[in-house]
Design brief:
Elements lengths: L1 E4 L5 E5 L6 E5 L9 E5 L5 E7 L5 E12 L4 E11 L2 E6 L10 E7 L7 E12 L2 E6 L6 H8 L2
Parallel strand pairs: 1-5
Antiparallel strand pairs: 2-3, 4-5, 6-7, 6-9, 7-8, 8-11, 9-10, 10-11
Length: 152
């Protein structure tokens, strides 16, 4: 199984792993589909793939950090699970009061040679129990540290 990244036109090329036949498809109908998709080449070879609609690549990480919710003065420990140039996914180690659309401050250190200290305000996009997805409110700070770390 392999991952295909879309561009601004929502079109991708799928190449058969057996015969190399290339097929161009429009991915807009797959935006709400399940992650794993199946296809079949004209040569009869079945294959599995996922379509990634993200605009920026992400990196799986395991970095310790903390969060702080202004206003209610709640804070707690987190594990950063994914990073990108525009967002973050983290897991709270304890129960929390974070909700969709909240603004939360996250603080963590990259495991790069500089041990770059990152502190960002993020806007929460989704919450699934203790796992939270968010995007950075300000992107200019730490841009070079993140770009180097993510190898972009």
């Amino acid at each position: 199984m392999y991952t295909i990244y879309t561009d601004d036109t929502n079109r991708v090329s799928i190449i058969c792993p057996k015969c190399g036949h290339e097929q161009n498809i429009d991915t807009t109908k797959f935006k709400d589909a399940q992650k794993k998709l199946q296809g079949k080449c004209r040569c009869g070879e079945p294959y599995q793939f996922t379509i990634e609609f993200r605009k920026r690549p992400r990196k799986d990480v395991r970095l310790l950090g903390e969060y702080f919710i202004p206003g209610i003065e709640e804070k707690g420990e987190i594990i950063i699970r994914e990073l990108s140039m525009s967002g973050i996914r983290f897991e709270c180690l304890n129960p929390h009061h974070i909700s969709k659309d909240d603004t939360v401050k996250v603080k963590f250190k990259l495991d790069d040679p500089k041990r770059s200290d990152i502190q960002k305000h993020v806007k929460v996009v989704w919450v699934r129990d203790r796992i939270i997805g968010a995007y950075y409110i300000e992107t200019k700070f730490y841009k070079e540290d993140l770009r180097f770390y993510l190898q972009i």
